[in-house]
Amino acid sequence: MPKQSKKLRSQQWFGLSDKDGFIHRSWMKNQGFPQDVFEGRPVVGVCNTWSELTPCNHHFRKLAEHVKRGIWESGGFPLEFPVMSLGETLMRPTTMLFRNLVSMDVEETIRANPLDAVVLLTGCDKTTPALVMGAASCDLPTIVVSGGPMLNGHYKDRKIGSGTDVWAFCEAVGRGEMTQQQLNEAESCMSRSAGHCMTMGTASTMASMVEALGIALPTNAAIPAVDSRRYGLAHQAGRRIVEMVREELNLSKILTKKAFENAIRVNGAIGGSTNAVVHLLAIAGRIGIEIKLDDWDRLGEDVPCLLNLMPSGAHLMEDFYYAGGLPALMRKMSSLLHLDVLTVNGQTVKNNISSAECYNNDVIFDREKPFKRQGGIAVLRGNLAPKGAVIKPSAATPELMQHRGKAVVFEDIDDYIERINDPNLDVEAKDILVLKNCGPKGYPGFPEVGNMALPKKILQQGIDDMVRISDARMSGTAYGTVVLHTAPEAAAGGTLALVENGDMIALDVVKRTLNLEVSEEELSRRRANWKAPEWPMERGWCRLYREHVNQADEGVDLDFLRGKSGTPLLRESH
Q1: 42 with 76: CB under 8 angstroms?
Q2: pLDDT over 70 for what percent of the chain?
């Protein structure tokens, strides 16, 4: 076994010759570990988000075993530990409410225990940013292993994508084009294997982001969950993390400014989720890298969408993997990337993608002839969004990217649910739907309700898109001309709180503007009469969250969690 260049952190527990060392080793031996595993092996934590309440991650017990096999092979000592698991499909009011809580769980668990490195098992949407945020705070050698996407869905004679076709099917039912029985049948056709959404939703986007950042091994993003190569990658990650300890390759050496700039540009090229904006802002804040909301526009403005994948296109993640995966896409956009950036396998981005091949040009397009000219995330500003709002051009209707319309206002999600399908709702297709009080503080938790379903009376006219504006998020699997993350949010007193029915709103994505056409005098009058929403007396996490959460333009982290904490040696417990 190669010698360490310096004393391992774990030896401050297992290398002691006093009563504390006795306690640390003796109780661990009740699991059958022999004496020699405590004598200088790097201790690697395997952070597992397995849960039967998180369907995307239910195969993680097996995934963890492959990681641990690789760690043992390389002379490490793997110790698996659980953290709270965030299941997007079941949790209420939204998993985003708990992302920061899980990050604290990860951070405190790493710091409190004899760990020299960590492998993060991530899959469902918020599990990836939550675990990376917590690990970034500690700054040990770290590798992310994603769980992988489900196999392609199939309904009748066509492929269907998780999330994306949910919205399409429900709209078809609203138009009378699909029956409830057919909708029920499609459920089993969509989710037919282990894994997360196989569209370019938030889960697939964040799996791509960690690979683009260099903190996951090449091909991590797209290998299907049930493909044996996913387990092979997990095995390799286990081997590599032990080498990273010996090389002292901490997370901060990978998560550089250039790495974040690469990830932002890759997000544009894959037509990635708008949710990546708040997640990367939060991760950057934890590791101490200065990334701003406007960087998303600056870096993504000239990046075309190269990936023909739902919701922006037609294919699914399984097809993306067979076409060459993220390395092939990154090679096609290599002139836009920092190729000298170091990654967790010890190689640069240039080395990782130099031999990548594309096997299907209908899935991964060339930069010279892209799938869509406009990728990236557009950041809008104006009196309706002084601190910014975002829109995903590749998923929007081109004709609505410059639009002026009358506001149809919903004060909160309950108001929306109650009135949206009222036949007497005063709404026309050219109007703009406005939803308030669904931001970080307002819901609470910043839910994915921004892609509001259109009024039934509009759907029955054969119309499938309208401009929608809110302080909420939307699922990465969704589509439409949807303005999101309006900051400050309504519940924090942002201009959005002052919008009234009939107000004219002007959206111009080309000019990056979003304005409420109401005079400053009238807005001042409304602001004087505005009252913050009354929340019930809440305890615990929800109360802490509301008191300390930042706005969307700052990543929706808690104000006291920004910046690294490191892993200082804490006082003994006995």
Answers
A1: yes
A2: 99
DSSP state of 566: -
**Residue with the two structure tokens 């300890």:** 245
In this structure, is residue 555 part of a structural domain? no
Radius of gyration of the chain (CA): 24
Answer for the pair 164, 122: CB distance below 8 angstroms, yes or no. Answer: no
Q: Count the domains in the chain.
A: 1
User: Out of 134-138, 168-172, 491-495, which region has the weakest mean confidence (pLDDT)?
Assistant: 168-172
Q: How many helices (H) and strands (E) does the chain have?
A: 19, 14
pLDDT tens readout for residues 271-282 = 999 999 999 999
| Domain assignment of residue 551, yes or no | no
DSSP secondary structure string for all residues of 307-375: B-BTTTSSB-HHHHHHTTHHHHHHHHTGGGS-TT-B-TTSSBHHHHHTT---S-TTTB--SSS-SBS--
Distance CA(7)–CA(12), nearest Å, equals: 9
| Cα–Cα nearest to 219, from 322, 303, 337, 341 | 322
Would 73 be classed as within a structural domain?
A: no
Instruction: Determine the Cα–Cα distance for residues 417 and 428; give it in Å rounded to an integer.
Output: 18
pLDDT at 210 exceeding the cut of 90: yes
Average pLDDT, the chain: 95
Domain CATH code at residue 418: 3.50.30.80
